[in-house]
């Protein structure tokens, strides 16, 4: 095993954001410190409404140096020149089609795989990452036990990076980081208190500064 380590990073999920104030909320969050990527969620919006909502968020994320990843809308991702697409249906065949069609031009990731078998099947498509945890279900004070166990298992067994979803309390970053997941996803923890987004991002990064993930020798 190598002595090298990597620093875990944050992923923001826009699911809690309404149409009004979303841009400013994301701007405040991105001003608070390091963010690897932003997953932009339709959250029930129709296609045209979602594209109008996503367009300024994509531009803002990219301007801040974060990858802008559009959820479940490949056409919107293409029109807005986003950096990637994320599929939530837990469909390994759809994921394989997406990786074949869009990599390496776009980042391709996915979530919705509830069992180890399903996750491994998804991994055969060689996505850029797998996310554990259901988007929008991060309202509890602590992360879901299944999210943590899946992330810990995956991180120990599979080279493809994983993202694990935290909880409403920003301190839950520590619980997720202990799994070894390369990325910690936060939504409610950052956006539930408007005006405190930058403060929450700074705190999350401070927690991640305390953790290191070993890099396996190739």
UniProtKB/TrEMBL annotation:
GO molecular function terms listed in the Swiss-Prot or TrEMBL record = thiamine-phosphate diphosphorylase activity
Quote the protein name from its UniProt record: Thiamine-phosphate diphosphorylase
Gene Ontology terms: cellular component: cytoplasm
What organism is this sequence from?
Fulvimarina manganoxydans
Q: Name one Pfam family in it.
A: TMP-TENI
> What biological-process terms (Gene Ontology) are attached?
thiamine biosynthetic process
Is Methyltransferase set as a keyword in this record?
Answer: no
Q: Which domain of life is it from?
A: Bacteria
SUPFAM superfamilies, alphabetized: Thiamin phosphate synthase
- List each copy of the Thiamine phosphate synthase/TenI domain by range: 10-190
Q: Which UniProt keywords apply?
A: Thiamine biosynthesis
Q: Which CDD domains match?
A: TMP_TenI
Q: Which InterPro entries match?
A: Aldolase_TIM, ThiamineP_synth_sf, ThiamineP_synth_TenI
Pathway assigned to this chain's UniProt record: Cofactor biosynthesis; thiamine diphosphate biosynthesis
